[in-house]
Amino acid sequence: MIGIVILHYIDFQMTKRYIDNLLSLNWNNLTYHIVVVDNCSPNSSGGELFEYFENNNRVTVLLMKSNLGFSKGNNVGIKYLREKYNCEIVAVSNNDIYIKNKDFFSLLNRIYLEEKFAVLGPDVFSVDKKIHQSPIRMTPINKIQLEKLKKNMQKKLIWMKLLIFLDIYPIVKIVLNGFGIRGVKESHEFQKCRENAVIHGAFFVLTDIYFNKYPDGLYDKLFLYMEEDALALRCNKKSLKCLYYPDLKVEHYDGRSTRLLKGNRLKKNIFELENTIKSINILLGEDDLL
What we know:
With 290 residues, this protein is α/β, with parallel strands linked by helices. 44% of the residues lie in helices and 19% in strands. The model is unreliable at 178-184 (pLDDT under 50).
């Protein structure tokens, strides 16, 4: 049995599009169930999804009373699928995903039978940025790298807040676009299958092998961001096989929900930096993981 957790926030059309996409795939003889976790969206989109899919026996919509963040929200869906449907494989994904390969989950199931992985990440292609986003890192992050990342992000945060204060971001954006400076680097390793890399959090797969070691699901002390690193550190600690597999591909329409909430890309980036720094501080305090 395969389960899919979709963490929903704000964007009804994007989540509905992804669910329709999943329902249209060739599942062949595989049984599956989709659970949508509405993370207390500040609009009516969670309730609308509940009503829209109420009579679909392949889809369950769970409405949270507060925003649980990424890990705790996904853990609600994971627990539901594991307890009610005894799912051996659980795909955890954002709502802004699209899968073109009709046989995606048949291929995923075959790879699991052959590779016996605990965690798998596909090739994640950002449609907006036009880059391949996974793997994020070739090896799990360490304490020195976390400290360096934190300092770099603190510097970026100061500059971004200054751009908002001076109200010159639109001018800077035009200049950067004119010079072809996107500010995001693509991983040049996306074509290579590899073990123990840090996979992208927009879509990844957990299996019984992972749940045997971590029955509660994901590391839940982080609210948003750095969850991929926490997952890689967990796998490394228990010597679990984390497989990046580029023959499996998903499209990622990233940041739509945050942009809808924050209004523009600069505010979205500031939001991401602030919350990433908070997550780094939490991880730095976890001597058991690092």
